[in-house]
Amino acid sequence: MASSFVTLFLAGWNGGATGALLPYIEKNFNITYAKVSVLFVCTFLGFVVAAATAGTLARKVGFGHAMLISTMVELIGNVINSSQQRNFGLMCFGYFVVGTAFSTQLGLCNTYFANLKKPLMWTGILHGIYGLGGFASPLVATAMVTRGIPYHLFYTTNVGMTIIVFVLAFIAFRNLHTLPYASVHESQPAETTTSINAFTATLRNRSVWTLAIFLMLYVGAEESIGGWIVSYVLAVRKGTPEGASWVASCFYLGVALGRIFLPPLNILMGERLAVFIYLAFAIGLECLAWLIPIFASTAVCTALVGVAISTFYTAAITTGGKLVPQNMHADAFALMSSVGQSGSAFWPLIVGIMSTKTGIWVVEPTVVALLGAQGICWLLVPRVGRRREE
After folding, report:
1. Max intra-chain CA distance, the chain
2. Contact, 7 vs 108, CB < 8 A?
């Protein structure tokens, strides 16, 4: 569990810094919002590769070895990103490599945590730690670049953390070939597939795709805020670089705190109802951030939106844990995680293209639309009994 926590902290650290660094990447390569968004596309392509291969990799070489391989791949991507700032194409390739590795790790960690006792609580903490990484990195990245340090040297911190992740994963997972399934899943549907056709069965499972699309919309909203809020605050709210980075950091802090402290409330209300209530609050707050032209209002509302949407990812994962047969978990969670994370590439790309044509102000209405679409998608998720955390 500690190894998984550090893995997700690094993922949040890497993802949270992107928004803070985008203005400096644009300036360095003299490119537009649309072109810099290619970084998100390359990350998305990495997620696609992981969706198709992560489950198979885990079955072929074992769960632990799959974790170690993905960490080594991530190290290569971080070395690429930290070593140069002259070739934008090479930087895009680095993002592709990191995206492939991160999505694989995310699917494996979700699979592991879905089989623990009290999965909702522990998965919430896992993804809360992701938010803590996202909270810290914009502040560090901005502090570095505003003091004249080339932006690419920020990625040297990723290199150091990746080495730590590999050491912990080696200690924790090297002898873990397959996951034992906990008694918490006794209420699940019976296993009807073998490992040979598990991936095919996963592709045909309606619940998997419904939850995957929900996650794609959720992650798209989260990363559209995290990826573009710094540029938005600088251009629309006329904030300072330090102030803009604090807005991004506080958003991720809201995500982290919500994931750690809201799960008991989710259990009380039921995950299905909780998501609808939080969505209503998030849409209202996002409209306030959009329509009130005051920096402080944007900052506070953005942070509270982070709290409101924080538990959506864990709600989807734990719901999937009850809807999907056990022997499909590796493929199902890899597919859900990868399709979900594709939203972090696709929707920020759309925002970048629209911003180039009409202005960066489109960030807020786009997020409102994504939140509304999540509500529609959540309606389509099959109902399950309330989860009891024993």
Report:
1. 59
2. no
Q: Which amino acid would we find at residue 96?
A: F
Q: Is 102 exposed, middle or buried (0-12, 13-18, 19+ CB in 10 A)?
A: buried
pTM for the model:
0.75
- Angle (nearest 5°) at CA 76 between 23 and 161: 75
Contact at 8 Å (CB) between 230 and 354? no
pLDDT (tens digit, 9 = 90+) per residue, 180-205?
654 444 444 444 445 546 667 777 78
What confidence category does residue 372 fall into, taking pLDDT thresholds of 50, 70 and 90?
A: very high
